[in-house]
Amino acid sequence: MADSILSIENAGKSRGALRVLDDVSLRAEPGQRIALLGHNGAGKSTLMKAVLGLTTLDDGAITIDGARPGSAHARTVTAYLPEAVAFHKSLTGREQLTLFARLADCPVAQVAGYLNRVGLAGAADRRIGTYSKGMRQRLGLAQVLLGRPKLALLDEPTSGLDPISRHELYAIIDEMADHGTAVVIASHTLTEVEARTDRIAILRDGRLVADDTLANLSLRAGLPTRLRVRAHADAADRIASETGGTRVNGVSVDLLCTPDRKMAELRRLSAMGEAVADIEMHPPRLEDLYRHYSKGDGQ
Amino acid sequence: MIRRILAIARIEATITRRNRWLLMATVIMVLFAVALTLAGSAPTGSLGVNMLTVSVASMTTLSVYLAPLLALMMAFDSIAGEAERGGLGLLLSYPVSRAEILLGKFLAHLTALGFAMTIGFGTAGALAAFFGGVDAASLIALLRLVLTSILLGAAFLALGYMLSALAGSATGAAGLSAGLWLVFVVLYDLGLLGAVVFDAGGWFTQQVFPWLMAANPADAFRLWNIAASDGVAMATGLGGAAAALPAWVAPVSLSVWPALGLLLARRFFARLEP
């Protein structure tokens, strides 16, 4: 596909006997937000470094906007937020960002605007040594925004951020995607990427075990939806025996059903009338999916 | 390319100023140079040279130790430290080459070193000139001392970057730098001295020794300053080795080392995976 910003084809890399990347293929189109999930050591960071041209592949190829990783064009169109980045303590936020603006050939006059965008306008002229972890992370994010990149690679962008900052971070990511930037987010905080990404890719031991939308992944995994039924009075035993569910605490029953059986179960429950007080539905969450795919059940 | 080198140099210069490196290096240079000038003014009468000449001779010996030390202390952290902090990977994700990063840092550090040298030797020189008189030859010797000290510093800055790229960690780079300083500044001379004593004035001492001496940037620095000034040679008593070599050898050696060091640093830096 010609319009892919990022195209990874059968990427492979070994470190000694360990296969850190094995036959990984992944594409990112303009405006897509892709979550790259995996345990520590699953190969996420190695894959990002390969895309940045900081490490070389043994097999396969990567192109960024048609260019080789590490080439001047690839570096111009790519922005990167490393995990837990440490800037130089004795520089101010403005000085650090000004350096990046100069290197990215982006007007230095825009630096103040980007600092403002990430909420660092007040701290711009303070030394980075006095910043909190969250503020350093925001400074890192400000440099990602410099020069409207076509591809943004964010390695654990939410680490160290409080909930409000996290919300702002995803607002900024959405804004970048709206402007046509392809955003790849490596993470293991699943609950956040769940609603915020267009596609989810899961790496396990260097292999890509899933790459699809959340809905398709759930469908393919066939994980059960959990129905928690709260019973009236002492009807819990009856409900449990009639539906084959398991009793949890005093008045509730848990039922597991496959996605296609869900409506049938609900109809059966509503037919029980007064015995059922309430039903909570828990569709499989990303966490269940992640466990499913990253443990190898999907193979 | 120049624009990016200057951007890196500017930020490095800010860091050097902020973390008081510039101040410390300058104070060290002034203190040592002034102390040596005042303490070393005794032999003026017996040698028949003016105080500035003696002062330059003392400061030449000082610079052999201090210039490499200051340069290595500035350089050792610059690649390994940044790689450790995670800033190097980010920097390299921008369209800036490793050579440009290296040259930018070099430019900033060399400027800081040059500033410290000029102020330090300049202050001591002014003091000596004020108390003990001055002539054109001794002024030129002072100027030569400042410029060659900067060149010597440049050589060890470049070697420091090389070790920093090679070591993989800042502590490792610090250890290697201390070793390098010890070898070039102390052990090399001791080794040569031992060989000369053993050889007892034979072929080695006549033919090989001067060349081996000039191959070491620290000794090339000494030879250059001595060979170029009779007064300084007399005051240091090291004229013999200098006289055995063509005049161009020491200057060429001292000028080649910074370039060679930078090339080596560039080579090892290229292999580093941040």
UniProtKB/TrEMBL annotation, chain A:
Cross-referenced Pfam families: ABC_tran
Family label: Belongs to the ABC transporter superfamily.
Keywords linked to the UniProt accession: ATP-binding, Nucleotide-binding, Transport
The protein's name: ABC transporter ATP-binding protein
Keyword Nucleotide-binding appears in the UniProt entry: yes
GO molecular function: ATP binding
Superkingdom of origin: Bacteria
UniProt lineage: Bacteria, Pseudomonadati, Pseudomonadota, Alphaproteobacteria, Rhodobacterales
Record organism: Sedimentitalea xiamensis
Record keyword Nucleotidyltransferase present: no
Domain ABC transporter as annotated: residue spans: 6-230
